[in-house]
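Entry for the shared binder. Reason: the reviewer on the internal report wants the predicted structure included alongside the sequence.
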Amino acid sequence: MRKKRIEIHNDREYKKFLRRITLYKRMFYRNTLFIIDSNIHDPNINYIIEALNIKKRKDRIQYVYDKSCEMIDEKGKEKNICGFKNYKCYVQRETKSKACNGCCKYCMYQTKNGCPTKNLACKLFNCSEVTSRHDVVKYRDLKILKLLSLKNRFIVKSDYFSTREDVLKDLYSYSVIYSTCRILYRWTKNDYFFSRKQKRKKRVNK
């Protein structure tokens, strides 16, 4: 396997590297081992290089997805960014809402102990109340996502309330129509679940 050394020592070289990611993903570099030489402190660089050295498509997609989730979790580690108290977030407490679990109340996978799966779209979403109080990871901060196709970048931003396994299956697919149909089906299923849940609560409160 041939080797390609990439040097990044200033902002100009970093931007040049990011622009060339699409080129480095191509078949021409399939048998290339990328080596980084950089004095810039940005974990995205090493993660991107590691992903480029994963040559199997599905393995690379899985690495990019899991690493993105990990970066968000690391940023928010030991922080209660949604301000949960007694299962209610900032907004639910301020509006004196009877609802619990913040935005996760709409998800059929929610538990009292938190999210049992890893959904990147959900992790990237933060309401204005959260962003006004905390420095959160945004989509543009995850440079590693440039390794995904345009279709897959759209999916990781919009595939809410789905399990990690379902999202990865959407990302593995080459068909936009197939992935979109799967997402719409899960949205419908989740909406039905939420509606049933609300109806049960109304019957109990009568």
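Summary line for the report: The chain has a mean pLDDT of 90.
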